[in-house]
Amino acid sequence: MLVAALAAAAFAQGGELRFCLKSEPKTFNPVLVADDSSEVVRYLTGGVLMRVNRQSQQLEPELATSWKISDGGRTISFKLRDGLYFSDGTPFTADDVAYTVKQLMDPNLHSVTGDQFRSGTGSVETKVLGRNSISITFPAAVAGIDRLFDQVAIMSAKSPKKELAVLGPFYMADYKPGSYVYLRKNNNYWKKDAQGRKLPLLDAVKLDIQPNRDIELMRFKRGEIDLINALDSDYFDKLAAGTQNEARDAGPSLDSEQMWFNQVATAPIPDYKKAWFRSQGFRQAISLAINRADLCRIVYANHAQPAVGPTSPANHIWFNSKLKPYPLDREDALNHLKLAGFTLSGDTLRDNGGHPVEFSIITNSSSKPRERMATMIQQDLRSIGIKVNVTTLDFPSLIERISEKFNYEAVILGLINTELDPNVQMNVWLSSSENHQWNPNEKTPATSWEADIDNLMRQQASSADPKKRKAAWDRVQEIVYEQQPFIYLVNKNSLSAVNPNVANAQPVVLRPQTYWNIEQMYLRNGGERAGQ
What we know:
Layout: H1 2-12, E1 16-21, H2 36-45, E2 50-52, E3 59-61, E4 64-70, E5 75-80, H3 94-104, H4 112-115, E6 125-130, E7 133-137, H5 145-148, E8 170-176, E9 180-185, E10 204-209, H6 213-222, E11 227-228, H7 233-240, E12 247-252, E13 256-261, H8 271-277, H9 280-289, H10 292-299, E14 304-306, H11 330-339, E15 343-345, E16 348-350, E17 358-364, H12 368-382, E18 387-393, H13 395-405, E19 410-415, H14 426-429, H15 448-462, H16 466-483, E20 486-498, E21 502-503, E22 522-523
Parallel strand pairs: 1-10, 17-18, 17-19
Antiparallel strand pairs: 2-3, 4-5, 5-7, 6-7, 8-9, 9-10, 11-20, 12-20, 13-19, 13-20, 14-20, 15-16, 21-22
């Protein structure tokens, strides 16, 4: 009996969880979120109609008990939970969903979240069918429409302070610019755990604003903060060397590091080099000559996996599992080069015009891993007779080179993927896009395979059938694998840090890695920490 009473007391003292924001939140209006720090606050405070479970990657009901997509993907209808209340006591009804959608799609507000729903010209129509029932119709089909609602925090149509009336596990109680955002437990939160306890189990969350990663790590080691949501491999290994099991490696993330060649027709580089870079055989040979296993082992201390293509194997829904990373095979690389018109003369590779094959790789000086990868690739390519020069630039100069002046030959950079759905990569794979990095803003596709990708991307974006979308995206991955416009190098692992005092922490690869199940988490000692 005494043990049970003590356990109950521990839960009653759920404690105050602390971690850091990397920058000042730019807004607390959930429809205007466009930065990481504001997104953290939205995730912790916003109630959504459905939520992508960050562990299973499946869509689960939240404020909506069920939903139905109809009209070829143009309309989605929701049945809502009854008897729910915002944190300020205002009842939750379908009117609040209609109000939120109106705000989300208001063209004058320029909502980044709303942009994902903009499928065509015309207005969005909402029909409140009852207190707990609503349908929303868009001008054209929206691919993956149900999953997009994971990011739509429902706002109150009636509360006078709309940003403070929330349906999530916490509400914003205090904000001191430059210092912290303080969130308190929402006593009106509707969820209970499997034991019937009201959630969240924590009393509060304090988000300290701290852009310096070294200071963040120091504070974590002192016990002043409880989580670090994302670590690089160097910081991870420093923590892993300890004895408290604080460092967590959840496996490959959605993010990739990649290399590509400049194929812009107007680029100020010699025509014979442009011919190399446009050669499928040349790009495949480069990919075959790179030792990805060594990149993972040496640069990332084995906290990375060889990459395959635009979708990480961490993406259980959209990854094409038929594809495997390009193997290290220098003999096959030389065969590809021979078929493409290159000749190895002594220890120098030459093209059919007699030019020695030499090019420069640029990357950003602020990234030590990319700098190390460039140096290792320089050594790998030397073994097939190619001379590589490595140049590091500050990030603004690098972006100017690759996006404005096109004065570069090859580059190593990364792609951050925050979503599972391939639609978020439309701005990379459409040939007309400015983020089609190897040859951006094409008036018409420069190659037949780029035209094929254009067609496939539009097919998957306009289809309401998940199987057809998957088949189209699988084919895009296969074309990218065959053509190597991006030479994918590694998928970095999702690394985080969790104080052992935090109960129910289950770090995953999807963002937010450490606190995706915040309502289930609590501090084992009821909130005591270092320095208190």
